[in-house]
Amino acid sequence: MLCLENIRLVHNPGTPTEVTALDGLDLHIPAGQFVTVVGSNGAGKSSLVNVVSGVHRPRSGRVIIDGRDVTRLPDHARAAWISRVFDNPLAGTAPELSLADNLALAMARGGRRRLRPALTRQRRELMRAQLATLGLGLENRLTDPVALFSAGQRQSVTMLMAGLTQPKLLLLDEHLAALDPRTRARVLELTVRMHDRLGCASLMITHSMRQAIDVGDRLLVMARGRVVFDAAGPDKTNLTPSDLVDIIAGLGDAPTDRQLLAG
Ligand SMILES: Nc1ncnc2c1ncn2[C@@H]1O[C@H](COP(=O)(O)OP(=O)(O)OP(=O)(O)O)[C@@H](O)[C@H]1O
């Protein structure tokens, strides 16, 4: 499904601040696989997501999604395949628009559906049914501006919107980081449910060692722009957070206090 071949990404090339963010990265993620990614600050995790989504174009290497070479396609041209959820719960929705309008825009994204049918009575019923699965009572607030919602409610809506385009690839960039523990657990459950329903490939960046071990099928550790540890099955589930911290520390990339506290 997702194939990265020998990706090299260099920021500010030829200047004193030149930095190699991805350094010959190879990665293959088949459809249906849920992959968690950990690593120290600056290891290249967000750079990986930015190269896959098309925000950054690599200096060399190829990005292949669903068998198609998309290396030269800009991010908007990849929207039909990819949904991305950011760490900022306020980033994924338009605050001044109503909940219904946000959902209609998400349905229109990727070009599968037009806005007008999305606002018919039937479409609103579909929206209500989808919102009811969140268990937050938002199905009764379709006309409210999203600005009135809490961070957790907005991130839950963003997750719902991410699934509406039937993406082949779900990119989750620390999407649980800003949520309180109860909301985090609920959005995580929603994430896993959505991944299973879509049958897509998912890539979740996290600073929580516990989450990285407990969630998904495969765990990657990144350091200095490469994948340096790759575990699945019992090799993954038998890991402990302290094993992971040791792996990261052994790479010379000292784990941050945040990683240690995240458990
Ligand atoms: N837009 C940019 N301009 C210059 N350097 C950048 C840019 N984005 C990232 N970098 C550098 O690239 C390297 C990898 O950064 P990246 O954000 O991918 O790391 P990360 O693993 O996501 O870190 P964190 O856990 O702190 O979010 C770092 O050295 C970072 O300073």
Automatic annotation (TrEMBL):
One of its GO terms (cellular component) is plasma membrane. GO terms for molecular function: ATP binding; ATP hydrolysis activity; transmembrane transporter activity. PROSITE patterns: ABC_TRANSPORTER_2 (PS50893). This is ABC transporter related protein. The keyword Nucleotide-binding applies. Keywords: ATP-binding, Nucleotide-binding. The keyword Nucleotide-binding applies. Residues 2-249 form the ABC transporter domain. InterPro entries: AAA+_ATPase (IPR003593), ABC_transporter-like_ATP-bd (IPR003439), ABC_transpr_LolD-like (IPR015854), P-loop_NTPase (IPR027417).
